[in-house]
Design a protein that fits this description.
The complex is a heterotrimer of chains A (363), B (382) and C (250). Chain A has helices spanning 13-25, 61-73, 135-144, 160-171, 190-198, 258-262, 303-320, 328-342, 349-358; strands at 2-9, 29-32, 78-81, 84-89, 95-99, 102-113, 117-119, 132-134, 152-156, 175-181, 203-205, 207-215, 219-227, 240-243, 246-249, 253-255, 267-270, 275-278, 291-293. Chain A is α/β, with parallel strands linked by helices and 363 residues long. Chain B is of the alpha/beta class and 382 residues long. Chain B has helices spanning 14-25, 58-79, 98-113, 123-129, 152-165, 209-215, 281-292, 338-354, 368-372, and strands at 7-10, 31-34, 50-51, 91-95, 119-121, 140-144, 148-149, 169-171, 176-182, 185-191, 194-197, 200-203, 223-232, 242-245, 250-254, 260-264, 300-311, 318-321, 328-332. Chain B is globular and about 65 Å long. Chain B starts with 6 loop residues before the first strand and ends in a 10-residue tail after the last helix. Classes of the chains: A alpha/beta (363), B alpha/beta (382), C alpha+beta (250).
Chain lengths: 363, 382, 250
């Protein structure tokens, strides 16, 4: 049994940020990361980040990961364990994990759950053909493993992930035939969309996939797209077909909240935040005492806000554990201010709505 | 929702639906079944659904013989398209101590005298039936080829469909909030969706029987105990028999879909109706099973969960009318065997309620055994 | 035109329909039999002589619309499948059309079908209200369609099963899920137990959100009012042997 002050589940931008703050405060921290590589989604991000200087704007994602890890490297009270999947959270306070192939039990005094989000799937005939990927998988193949995933790709989804991954596919020498978006408008940042259009890639809004065809031995061979009417129904006669060897699905992310459900956190469904999210107070505590959340598991946002919410959760957990830092209150306020500013624009409206729905007080 | 009924059954698990089915089959009318969540939400949907006729007391042998025969013919009788997945691969009851061996021999003799064709097997013969088995700790085993297991969800649905075809009504998502009485007799049931006037209420609420009885001010000599279970990834068929051992404290089966399901009795379980997962069950179960079936070590656990055993003082069910409250019937206290006894439960409760001649010895399962001190003895319970 | 394309002209269709007053008075048969051929079962079928008796077997049928009560007996007996019954005031918003249909499988009551026009194009979705299967005669399917489509809808087609995969662990398709929902299963937990959906190695991460959308559509309830089902340990599968090794071998 591993006894520890703080268990952080996930070494993405949120988890690493939480570990830095709690470690600074003096807590003994164990960070468990499923992947063999630390940094979560950051390590796949080859583009320069938006946001402000405080969230490392203009740095590329993998560089930010290095910055956070370098900071943690200096802390003797923080252990970061890759190859470690947290398996379960039990009501007697015990958490279990598979750590480098071994079953382990952990008794933490507090936990920051920073498990992130997983990609949503889509229903259409042929959706299980080889060659149909989530955008995250394509990014992993290209940017982590250096594998060119396909030659001709159609991207489903014109949110930031769909746009950015399309661009990265082109950088990797893959032909992006089209970006297809069900909504009447492009969901991601328009600067990303314009980059693609300048490369000659069409973006079809109010369109979706009708079906995918191929042989199981060859995998995907073609996709047929069609136009959607105002009720999101396909319009007969509007079909057109592309021959491709990959279809990339980027239709949104869904918070990875299993552990929160298991431990009995109260949850609420928020479509704009990607699915079920935990009720939390403004300092990231859930309905369960000592259980905090950071990053996308609390609702899908950008990496910049994940880092800030991670810092906030780390400070709050340290405070709960009885650790003190000078200016703790000011640090928390600074995080709140950063989050408010990141969420304040027109692109943050849906996030503000989700937070309004889930933010409560547990006093 | 209807306002009146002749009989209201509380509980949409296997016991409730079988009672409803047999009541209508034997001529009852206007029978309504109420379920707080959905059918099989309680212990029925959480159990291993094993069926065995190897018992140590004549009563249980008789009840389970009837149930097993019923399940064998259930496909025709209930006319359920999907099928109930009754897999008769036999039950192997492993004996690992001298005492257990002695008891197992006695049980087999009793079973044979009642027409149950169980037999004793040597470790070598046991291994022929389960080649995966490590027999080093095993002295002998009892085996009956007609025992087996079935799919609890489809079995319950099959009874529920048949019950509805015979005119029964099922209200799911309907919590019972009160049981009303007039002049010391049952007069109705309050639910979250309205009141149903009735003179007969059947409490078939499994682990929650005490809570249902308490609505009528009745205190039952029952308690509910959390039991844990796990399921693995599906693999090719390799274990046809259901394995169990009292001394090694486990049961294990491979269901037709390919998954292994296994459970054991764990110490220090909560008794507050909590059915959250236990943090020490996985390693205890994994150690036990890889000791007996070593090649399962590479099989992956997918999930664990828990359900409630509704325990009676002598680990036998109670089929009776509450003595101080005419019209209030109880079918509970199955102590972990409610699923396999379900057809016997259905028939017995129908006969009890409708005043019919007993087909099965259910008169021994009344409350008076607790007053008279004539508790029923059974050696073969976990 | 009919002679060239097999599709009656609008003028012909208008001539087959009774006037608006009669349409509004209740269900009525509409006979699209424009060519004299030797055939008279419709007139023989009508118990009310609403289809006027033929002088010659080559007569085209003539209706006395006031006698017709829309019973549909002629629909099931016409060998040319030329007759439908239209009830324009079946509900506030929908008209009922009784159509002859000679293909298997027959549609089911409550099923949503494609309503086809006279050229076989799908023009709307239609709910099956009733299915009558007379012995050795043509089955009659009653469907509900928007009132403005009564002169357009003339056939039905059962949509192909949607074989899009919902649950990759257990190969469960949308059609499977839809059929269980139609049987009365109304929650993720129930569907899990009856189909094994969400109980495979992915622990429902892929399929549960998809199933919740199907449930939401079928039950006409927002997803926020549904429950997502129980989330059970463990998050990722683990070998029995590795778990057994915890704390040393027993």
């Amino acid at each position: 049994m591993i006894n520890i002050d703080l268990l952080v589940v996930g070494a993405g931008p949120a988890g690493l940020s939480a570990a830095i703050k709690a470690g600074n405060a003096g807590a003994s921290v164990l960070v468990l990361e499923r992947s063999h590589q630390l940094g979560g989604q950051l390590v796949k991000q080859t583009h320069m980040f938006f946001g402000s200087e405080k969230q490392y704007a203009t740095h590329r994602g993998f560089e930010i990961s290095d910055i956070l890890l370098a900071e943690l490297d200096k802390m003797e009270n923080v252990t970061i364990q890759p190859h470690a999947t947290v398996l379960a959270a039990y009501d007697d306070g015990i958490w279990t994990a598979e750590i480098e192939g071994q079953y382990q039990k952990i008794k933490p005094s507090a936990v920051v759950v920073a498990t992130g989000a997983s990609e949503k799937s889509l229903l259409f005939p042929g959706n299980d053909l080889p060659g149909i990927y989530g955008a995250g998988a394509v990014q992993t193949l290209m940017n982590q493993y250096g594998v060119k995933p396909a030659n001709r790709v159609v991207m489903l989804g014109a949110g930031n992930i769909g746009l950015i991954v399309s661009y990265q596919l082109m950088q990797a020498g893959v032909e992006v035939i089209a970006v297809v978006e069900g909504s009447p408008t492009i969901g991601g940042y328009l600067v990303h969309a314009s980059k693609l259009r300048r490369m000659g890639v069409p973006i079809f809004t109010s369109h979706t996939i009708k079906n995918a065809k191929g042989a199981n031995t060859n995998g995907l061979e073609s996709v047929t797209l069609w136009k959607l009417d105002e009720n999101w129904q396909g319009i007969s006669g509007s079909e057109f077909t592309y021959h491709v060897d990959a279809l990339c699905i980027a239709v949104g992310l869904s918070p990875l909240s299993e552990l929160l459900w298991q431990i009995g956190c109260k949850m609420t469904f928020s479509a704009p935040m990607g699915g079920y999210i935990p009720y939390r107070d403004k300092y990231m505590r859930t309905s369960q005492k000592g259980i905090y959340i950071a990053g996308d598991v609390g609702g899908v946002e950008e990496a910049s806000s994940a880092m800030v919410s991670g810092q906030l959760a780390g400070i709050s957990a340290a405070e709960y554990l009885g650790f003190e830092m000078p200016n703790m209150a000011a640090m928390k306020q600074d995080c709140l201010n950063q989050l408010a500013s990141l969420r304040q624009g027109p692109k943050g409206a849906h996030i503000r709505a989700g937070i309004r729905q889930a933010e409560v007080s547990f006093e | 929702m209807r306002k009146t009924a002749d009989i209201v059954i509380i509980g949409g698990g296997i016991s409730g639906v079988t009672i409803g089915y047999f009541l209508l089959k034997h001529g009852a009318k206007n029978v309504v079944l109420l379920e707080r969540d959905y059918l099989t939400a309680g212990a029925t949907g959480r159990c291993g659904a094993g069926i065995r006729q190897q018992w140590g007391a004549p009563l249980n042998c008789r009840m389970s013989q009837f149930s097993c025969e019923f399940f064998e013919n259930a496909q025709d009788e209930l006319d359920y398209a999907h099928g109930i997945e009754f897999h008769q691969g036999g039950y192997l009851m492993l004996a690992t101590t001298e005492n257990e061996l002695e008891q197992t021999r006695k049980n087999v003799a009793l079973q044979n005298s009642l027409g149950i064709a169980s037999k004793m097997l040597s470790p070598e013969e046991t291994k022929e039936i389960v080649p995966l088995l490590d027999t080093k700790k095993i002295l002998a085993a009892a085996y009956h080829h007609k025992d087996g297991h079935l799919n609890p969800f489809h079995t319950t649905q099959a009874f529920a469909n048949a019950f509805k075809r015979l005119g029964g009504e099922i209200y799911i998502n309907t919590n019972v909030t009160g049981i009303t009485t007039t002049q010391g007799k049952i007069s109705g049931v309050d639910t979250e969706h309205g009141h149903i006037a009735t003179t007969i209420v059947v409490n078939a609420a499994g682990g929650y029987s005490q809570a249902v009885a308490a609505l009528a001010g009745v205190d039952l000599p029952l308690h509910s105990e959390r039991h844990n279970i796990l399921v693995t990834e599906p693999v090719e068929p390799m274990l046809s028999a259901m394995l169990m051992s009292f001394s090694l404290n486990f049961y294990c089966q491979q269901v037709p879909h390919g998954s292994f399901i296994m459970g054991r009795t764990c110490p220090d379980q909560p008794n507050d109706l909590r059915i959250t997962a236990d943090s020490s069950f996985l390693e205890a179960m994994a150690k036990t099973i890889t000791d007996v079936l070593p090649s399962l070590k590479n099989l992956r656990i997918l999930r664990q969960w828990a359900g409630l055993y509704n325990m009676s003082p002598d680990k036998h069910p109670i089929y009776d009318q509450i003595p101080q409250l005419p019209g209030f019937y109880l079918a509970a206290g199955f102590s972990g065997h409610g699923f396999m006894m379900a057809p016997a439960t259905g028939l017995s409760m129908a006969e009890l309620i409708l005043g019919l001649e007993p087909t099965l010895p259910w008169k021994q399962l009344g409350f008076n055994r607790f007053q008279s001190g004539e508790l029923l003895l059974e050696s073969s319970v976990v | 035109m009919l002679e060239k394309t097999g599709v009656p002209t609008e003028t012909q269709i208008d001539s087959a329909f009774p006037n608006e007053t009669r349409l509004n008075e209740g269900p009525v048969a509409v006979i699209e039999c424009f060519q004299p051929i030797p055939c008279n079962p419709c007139a023989m079928a009508c118990p009310r002589q609403a289809i006027l008796p033929f002088a010659d077997i080559n007569d085209v049928p003539v209706m006395d619309n006031d006698k017709c009560n829309g019973c549909g007996l002629c629909v099931m007996k016409c060998p040319g499948l030329a007759i439908i019954v239209v009830d324009i005031n079946w509900s506030e918003t929908k008209a009922l059309i009784k159509l002859p249909y000679e293909f298997r499988p027959l549609p089911q009551k409550g099923q949503i079908l494609h309503a086809l026009d006279r050229e076989g194009h799908p023009i709307a979705n239609a709910e099956v209200i009733n299915v009558i299967v007379p012995a050795n005669k043509t089955p009659v399917i009653s469907i509900a369609v928007d009132k403005d489509l009564i002169k357009k809808v003339r056939n039905i087609c059962i949509p192909e099963d949607n074989d899009s995969i919902v649950c990759r662990c257990s190969d469960i398709t949308v059609a499977d899920i839809q059929s269980f929902i139609a049987q009365g299963y109304t929650s993720v937990d129930e569907l899990k137990r009856i189909t094994r959906l969400g109980m495979g190695a992915c622990q429902g991460r892929t399929c549960i959100p998809l199933v919740m959308r199907e449930l939401s559509t079928a039950l006409k309830k927002p997803i926020s009012e549904l429950t997502s089902g129980t989330h059970r340990p463990i998050v990722k599968s683990m070998k029995l042997g590795d778990v057994a090794a915890y704390g040393g071998k027993s």
